[in-house]
Structures are given as structure tokens and as C-alpha cells.
Amino acid sequence: MFSKNINKVRFNLTLMDEGEYYFDDYSAMFYPPSNTEEESWQKRIAGRILVCSSSIFFEPDDSKLPIMKFPYKDMSSMGVWLNSLSSAPPAHLPTPQPIPQSILSKPIPPPIPQPVVEQPSPTRSALSRLLSFSSLTSKVTSPTPQPPPPQPPQPTPSIAPTPTIATNPYTSFSVSPNPPSPLLSQLFEQAKPSFLASKGDIFYVKSSQVIEMKENSRNHPYVFKQYNNIDFKFSFSYVKQNIVLDVMKVFHNYSGKEKIQKDELIKQMVEDRENKIFFDITQLVDMNERNILELKCSKISPLVENPGRLLITNARLYFQPMNNIEENRLKNYSLQSIVRVLQRRHSLREIGLELFFDDNSSLFLKFNNTIIRNQVYDLLVKHLCTNIMHINEQANYLLKWQNGIISNYDYLLYLNNLAGRTFNDLTQYPVFPWIIADYHSQILDLNRKETFRDLSKPIGALNPTRLATFQERYHQIPDDQTKFLYGTHYSTPAYVLYFLVRQVPEYMLRLQNGRFDSPNRMFYSIEETWNSVLNSTSDVKELIPEFYRPSDSNNRNKHNDDDDDDDDDDKKVENGSFLTNSENLPLGIRQDNNVINDIILPPWASSPKDFISKLHQALESEYVSQNLHHWIDLIFGYKQKGEEAVRANNLFYHLTYEGSIDIESIINPFEREGMEAQINEFGQTPRQIFKTPHPQRLPQQLRNQNLKIELSDLEQNINFIFDELNNSCNINNLDNNNNNNNNNNNNNNNNNNNNNNNNNNNNNNNNNDNNNNNNNNNDDNNNNDNNNNNDNNNSSNNNNNSLNDNNNSFSDKKNSCDNIIIDNIKNSNDFENNNDNNINNNNNNNNNNNNNNNNNNNNNNNNNNNNNNNNNNNNNNNYNNNNNNNSFDEENFSDENISTSSTFLGEERNNCNNWGSLNFLKFNQNIKLHKDKISALYLSNNSETIYSVSLDSCLKIYSLKEKRQVRSLNLCNLALSSFQLSKDEKYIIIGSWDNNIYVYSVGNGSISYSIPGHSDAVSCLKLHNNNILVSGSWDSSVKVWRTHRQSNGAISIEKTPIADFVDSDTEIRSIDISSNGTIFCAGSSDGYLYFYDLLTLQLVRRISCFFDELVCIKFTPDGSRIITACIDGSVKLIGIEGSEIFSFKVKGEIHCLDSDGSTLIIGTDRGLCLWSLTTGTEIKDSISPFLAQSSNESIYSLNVSINQSSNKPILLTGTEAGSISIWQ
Hints:
Layout: E1 22-31, H1 37-42, E2 45-52, E3 55-60, E4 67-71, E5 75-81, H2 126-141, H3 182-191, H4 195-199, E6 202-213, E7 223-236, H5 241-255, H6 259-275, E8 291-301, E9 304-313, E10 316-321, E11 331-334, E12 338-346, E13 349-357, E14 362-366, H7 370-384, H8 391-402, H9 408-418, H10 464-476, H11 493-500, H12 505-511, H13 526-535, H14 568-571, H15 608-619, H16 622-635, H17 643-647, H18 669-682, H19 700-733, H20 736-740, H21 742-752, H22 756-761, H23 768-785, H24 789-796, H25 801-828, H26 842-849, H27 853-862, H28 864-873, E15 923-928, E16 934-939, E17 945-950, E18 954-959, E19 964-970, E20 976-981, E21 987-992, E22 996-1001, E23 1006-1012, E24 1018-1024, E25 1028-1033, E26 1038-1045, E27 1051-1053, E28 1059-1061, E29 1068-1073, E30 1079-1084, E31 1088-1093, E32 1098-1104, E33 1110-1115, E34 1121-1126, E35 1130-1135, E36 1140-1145, E37 1150-1155, E38 1159-1164, E39 1167-1172, E40 1178-1179, H29 1185-1189, E41 1195-1202, E42 1209-1215, E43 1219-1223
Antiparallel strand pairs: 1-2, 1-7, 2-3, 3-4, 4-6, 5-6, 6-7, 8-9, 8-14, 9-10, 10-11, 12-13, 13-14, 15-43, 16-17, 17-18, 18-19, 20-21, 21-22, 22-23, 24-25, 25-26, 26-27, 26-28, 29-30, 30-31, 31-32, 33-34, 34-35, 35-36, 37-38, 38-39, 39-40, 41-42, 42-43
Helix pairs in contact: 11-12, 19-25, 21-23, 21-24, 21-25, 25-26
């Protein structure tokens, strides 16, 4: 994204021709053409001469004057200026003739013959050069002169003995009193210095054209002035003239050669120059830095390639340009500031590298070849940059986007980035979709579906009539030629500058050879442009990120041309500034006589800023959120190319796709250059990221619930940390009397903090009853006395004033930290409320600002639900996901504001499936029931009974209420692998290694039914709605059974399965069914995941997830995602369409897992692991202490349920030793 920069000099590299190389600049003086040289001297202009490979620039110091460009191809000559005869063409000079012997005092000795005649130095006078030339011609090339006829004696002029060597050509000879010959008179005229020449060393450039630009520092079209080969005279201020003049003459000589030869000569000259330049180590920030790598590379910015040297040390990365065009010639970047390094294409070659920094800036580097690029990449990523985003952290972008933590805007930017799109290259500029289709209404209604563009179709297929034209042309293309649907692309440099010409006009001037595009093709009106892309057969362009830029992102995306020394105000660009002609550019007059100025906006937009704001709201709306994945499939996904692209009417010309041509294999430079120009100008399709359908974003209701849980966990974690700090400080200040008053202090702390829950949890166990009573009293007191409660509490604890003060200070810090962190999450993580996805935080801010004790009590008074929950649930309300902290805005997540129409597969998620936070579970008890590994266990709905099966072949039923085992049954002689409870918990369906499936009656305490299930061990079972049972086996088969209720209520299984799938080549290890019963998945021991449709009883897809046993499968409650786990510790979250959303790896072997869709808990041979499926981050032991307590256990089964009476989560874990642990 471009940001405006006010440079201290007007010249920049975009003023040069494409492929032109900038060498150096020199302080100089320009003498404008005038009637006399005296007048030129009076009008002299100070400035700089900039020497480039295709032209010379003169930039006056006075910014009101234009920069002058002198292309070498338009020059007829250049050289040292002596007088008006210095630049005369050879035809106007006298023809060199042998000098008569009568003129010279004595014959000039012949020169020593040389194999090559050395050219005269440009610093020698015209006379000395002519005399030297005459001498040579008279001796070598001229015929032998005849003896002159006798003449009467004539006075002989006195000539200096060495006329060809004269340090001062104007005084190197003396003349006799007699008049010289006519030839000698002409020589005198050539050697006579002019007025300017007498002032110093002057050189001239004779040119037929001068290009003027940047007059008054304005980016107006260039002025091309034609001349009749007049002389433009200059002088250098400090450098020796002949040094620079010789270089310019070389370039002038090259300009007359064939392009291939000229390019090769300049390339060799550039390489020789660059090989002589090395990094200046005196410019190191720290002289103790150790140099690791130094090499040549180029910095890439829009339309510009600036060569230089890259130095990487153990602490920093330096880039030193070969020229001095940048004000800060040497730039350094701390390796710790690099957060991402991505490999890039440049000019269709894999030679680019883009570095991203923690200030949202970036640096695009181009190397000579892929090998060097990869070496630098490995050095930075694997060894030096410790803050580079880990692959798992990059992968969880999709997960965060699904859960609403990342906005649609940020996610599209991320996908563009991942697909090789960058703000530093116009040929690969980020692409964004057209969202709105209504540009004529007075009010933009985001609740109407018709307001939006159909995101499931490419822009070229939105108009059926136009699409028919494209399809007809597609079918007319011969079969022996590569077919395409669209002859133009949706993203090209010309399209980018079509939108941005008012913001960066210098880029269009560069592309259009110093002119703006035709007025009739310029960006004029939003509605007109939309109609064009909807109807024209030559226009299918999409939009750019600037149309949706959030209002808080002034510095979110800075490209590498930003000058570090510029003021921040210079870098900030107001939203929608590219829609206004702030520079008063002369963009032209259209055929309808309308002057092109600011963009004409739709009626529903009051200003450019309002227009961008409403487009951003539309991008973040629920309609777009639920349909954006279709557009992603077209641009970055599986519909981008191939047969899927044909079916989706999304096929472009084949050269636009990555890998369609090997540019390195084209030897002919003309063909290669033409191919590069064609592809760069026509457009490049982004790199394909997804090979399977992109997952859909979760509905707004689920996103809000997940974020609500995440915020609740975050605030509880903050409270826990501050309470620990409180306790540590309290211990240092407490004496024996304070220890005796622990109850009162805890109650006082509860009143002083926003959250009572965590403080209550920190109370001693022997004081729980007292704390409960005190809490009830406090709540009553709060309801009655409001703001005076703290005074009453403080007066009742007057012996602990110092402690209270200490706690208050910690409370203030905690509250401040709570508010800052939670506000940041709410503001940056795309909270949504109906169609406006940015939640109004005014109420939050008001509540958050009330951090004093009295206001906390008032907040508690205003939240009756919280008070009731506090009274009923005592110290453990932190487990109740319905009980929220005061700083959390309940109104934004009320049922009135959440749309219930957006559900997945027609099923709404049940709130009771949410566990809430598991971070503060505590060990309750351990029960030894089995002699071998516990393969499966469940807790009854009333949380009073535990059911478990084990590899010891036993089924156990344990009563937590009675604290005893109530059932124990040895079903068979082999292990029991799995079981399922009926909804009424009266029957248990059990799978065994003896190949059978058993139905156990809890009431009768016996087996009521059994059938032979498979030809090998039954490894897994899953029951859905008491009528469908799916079983997997070691025999590689998956069977679907229909179950029935008999007249006595008993469950029976049909003896013949309704489906028998044998798609796997190896054993089936795990099975799960979606919550709506339409799809089930099976995992095999070779790591494959199979999707089956339960309605059609067919295999939907088969994907390879892992290279080892797929031991666990779990559908999220909404049925849109599947959690899969491999025995080697790998975990993947996969969308229902088969796309990987998120992946990570844990230590140890995985045996079991469970999830409520927001939190994932995993059992391994090293204990428990806890992950957030909202943010994709692991919850560490420091936050959840119970995880460390389980580290010495090998967990083989687990189950999480909600206690219906207390609404608290209960965790059961079954171990390898056969014991069951209870955590609550």
C-alpha cells in the first residue's frame, strides 16, 4: 500500500527509462542558451547532473524550474567547450592539410611509427590536435610532396619548437609581426577561448530534444521540447570534468549501437563498477558485529530496481545502494525486527525475497539466481532471525479468521501475501474483490442480498450475456491451441495505476512515457467502472486493497520506499485519498466535455472517507463472511486453473499462470524480453494456495461465542496472575494477626476487584464456608448500599489497612491491564454485531474506565445475573461460561443482536456444549477400577456415575454419589475397545477384540443382545440418535448398522449392516459422526481420513492426513470441522470440505482427545495438553496448573462433560494403569 513521501530532492528512479541504470550525481552549473555567453553566465542555474546509462538529467536546485532530461540517442555530440567552433560538425571545420614547410621554421621530425595511432586526448587544444593530425598525415598518409618552386625570400614566422605539446593552448606559440596564413588564422579562431570558457572548464551537449519534468515539483505530464541541435553548456563544481565526460561519451557511443549489443556493453560496465564497490564497514552500528555474508542484490520497489550490496551480520541486515539517490544511503534492520521472510518471484523468476518487519514495513530484495536467494533465506530463517513467525503461527491465520479474530480484510491481505502478491511490485499487486453491486441507491442497505456481488462467480461471469460471448470464443479456439475464456486479466500494473493515478501519478507517467492515459480511459466514476467490468468484454478487473482500508491502518502496510527520516505525517494517507485529485493533475477532458478531477462517488457515500468506510463495513458483513470462501477458491484456490477453472468459468490466458513457461530456457534475448513484457503487462495469476475447497467462515453466532469464551479465559488468566502477585505481596506484609484475618481480607479483595471468582479460588480450603457466607453478605450489601460497601468493608478490617492499600494498588494495575488487553482484542480481532462487524466499544470503554472500588460494586449491582451466579455458585463461578466479567460487554452478544439464521447444515449449536474455561481445573480424586489400560469412559448426565471399559475385558460402573463400584462385568476373554451410551443411559453398546458388538442393559446388569460385527477386532464405535451405529475394525472395514427399540425398550441391532465399506487398505482406528448425522469420518492406521455420506451411504472423499496411525477423530459440535490426531503427536483441524485449517504437534504419543469446538484437550503418554481452537495457541502449565499435575500420567482416554447442577466442567482421565482421575 503506497504512502506519500515528501523527498528532499525531486529526482527519483521512476523518472528513468525501464532498464536504465543510475550511476552518480554531481554538483553542477547549467548555462541556459542565450544570445550571448555573457547573458548565459548571468542566467546560470545551480543544480545537479545525474548520469544514467540512457540519459543525462539536470535537476536545478530551484524547485520551480523543471528537471531536464537529455537522452543520449537525441544527442549529436558532446565535449569540452572552448567556443562556438567546439561543437561544430566535422563538415564545418577546415579540411586538414599538410602544413607547408615555409610556415614552419624547420621540418617537424616524423613520429615514431606505432601499430595503433592513439586518439588525441579530449583535454588538448584544438590547435595541438590539428597540428598533431597534420603531422601524421603528411608523413604517413599523404603523397610525397614535390619540392616547392623557387620563391623570393620571405620572412619566416617563429614557431615554438614543440607545437603539439602545449599545456596552455592559448599561449603555446608566438606569431611574427607579419600576418599569418588563412589556415593559421582559422587555427587561432578555434583556440581562442570564449567568455564561458574563460570562466572555467565547460562542456557542451548538442541535443535535438530535451524532456522537462517536475516543474514546481508537480507530477504533470512531461514536456518534450524539440531543438535544432543547439548547445547546452554545463560545468562541474567540484569533480574533474574529464572524468565524468569520458563516462558520458561512452554511454553516448553505446546509444548508437544495436539494442542487444548496447545492453551487453552497459551490463558489463555495470558489473565492473559493482565489483569494485564493497560495503563500508565503518558504517556498522556496532563495531563488534560479526560479518556473516556480503553479496550483490537489488532492492525492488514499484517500477524501480536499485542495485546495491547486502551485508548480514550476527545482529543486523544492511543494504548499501550502489548509488547515492537515497538520502539515507545505508539502511540497517535489526534481525530481531524481522517477523517474516517469504520467497518471491520477480520477472517470472524465483529470485526474490521479501522481509517483513515488526513495524509493518517490508523490504523486497532481488538476487542473481535462485541458489543465492535460497541460501540467504535459509540463513535468515533457520539461524539468525529468532522472531520469525513459526509455521504453526502462520497456519493459524485460517483458524483465527474462521473464529472472527482476524477480519476479512486482514485475511485477504494475508492470502495475497502468501500467494506472492506484494505492494512492492505492480505486476503482482494484491487483489481484492468487488463486493458491492449497488452504486445508484441513496442508502446502502447491507441487509439486502441484492446489494452484494455474487462472490461464487468470477467477475467475467457475472453477466450471462457477456459470458456467452466468452464461451463462444472459447469453443472456437482450435484444439491444438491452448484455450482460454478471458483475453484480459483481473490484475495488471495498468489496472493498479488506473485506480491510483491521483495518488502516485509518477508511476503512470513512467508507464505511459511521460503522459497520462487517454481521458476517456481514465478512472472517472465508481458506477461507470462497475458497469464496465460488468458489461465490457475487455474489462474484468477486480479491486485493490485501498478500497477497503480500515480507518485505523495509516501505517499498517508501508512499502520499502518510505524514508526513515520522514515525519510520520508525511507517511500517513487519509482513507480514500486516491479518489481525490489533491495535486490538481491535468488529467484531461472526456469526449462528453467533462473535466476529470475527483472520482464521482455513489449517492450513498458522502465523501471518499465515508465511501471507503462503508465498503469496509460491507467487506466485514455477515453475507460476505459466509461467501468469501467462494471467491478465495477462484483466485487462490482449487478453481484457479485446470478443469475446475473451466467448470467455474474462470480460465485465463495460459501465460498468466505460474510455471506456464520457463523464462530461463529462452536464449534469444529479444524473445525473452518480449515474453517478460507481455506477461508483466498482461497480468499474473497469484500462486495457487489451496488445492481443495476453502473452509467457510463460522457463522456469526459461533464466532461470538468462541470469542466470548476466549475473552473470559483471558481475563481469568489475568486475574489469576495478579492474584498470585497479590498473595506474594500479602505474605511479605502479613503478620500473625493478618493471617488470622485471612477471611476478611479475601472478602475485601473481592470487593476491590472486578472479578470475585479468582480471588475466591485462592482462599484456603478450610475457609470456603466462611467465604461463601461472606460473599452472600457482600452481594446483599452491594444491592443495598451501592457505593458505600467498600467503606463498610474497610472499617470492619481496620487492622489490615496496609494490606488493603497494597491490594488496592494491585487491583488498580490488574483492572487497567484487563481493560487494555481486552479492548485491544475487541478492537483488533473483528468482533461482529449484525451487519456491522466492528462492535461498538463505547459501553465497554465506559465500564472499563470504572476501575475504582465503588464503581466495581456498581457494576456488580447492574449485572443481576452475575450477582445471582455469585450467590449460587460460591467460589467457582469462573467455570460457568454464562457468568461473565464486568468488563465484558454482554449487550454485544445478546440474543437480540445475534442472527440465528446462519447455521451449518441446518443445525444450531447448543450453548450447553461449551465447556467454558478448563484452565483452573483441580484434581479431585483418583479411582482404581481396572487392571489394564482404560480404552473409553463417560460420565452420566447427572454427573453421578462413571462408565468405563478397559483392555482387561471388563465393563465398570462407579457411583460418585455413593463412592463405590455398582457394576463390574467381564464380557469376554479379550479386550474391550470402545463403547457408546444410549441417550437414556439404560443401554451400553460395546465393541470387543473378539469381533463382536454387545448391548448391555444397565438395569438388568447383563448382556441383552450381541452380534458378530467384523471378521477382526472391533476397534471403534459411534452411535447417533439411538438409530444409527457405525463401527470400525482391524479388518479394514467400516460398517453402518441400523438400531431399533424393542417393545420392552431394549436396543437391538440389525444383523445385516446397511453399508459395508472396505475402502481402506489398513486397520480402522477411529470413527466419529457429525452432530446432524449426515457425514461420518473414519481414520486408518496408514494416516488416511475417509469421508462418508450417511444419507447416500457413499464415500465422499479420501485424503492423506498423516504418515502414521490416525488414532483420534472428533467433529466440532457445529459439524463444520474435524479434529484429527496421529499417534506421533500431530494434530490437524480439517474443514468439512477436506481442507486443512490448522495443524500443530505435541510432545509424546497421542491416545485420545475431546473438544467443544473452542477448546481442545489431548491425552498423551506424557499427560494432558490444552489448546485454544479459537486462537490456535497452546495453553501452558503456568496458566493451567492442573496440566503439570497430569504430566506423570499416561492418559489413554478422557471425557469432558458439564455438571448440570453447577454448570461446571468435569474432566475424567483414564490411565495406562487402569485408574480414573477426576478434575473439576
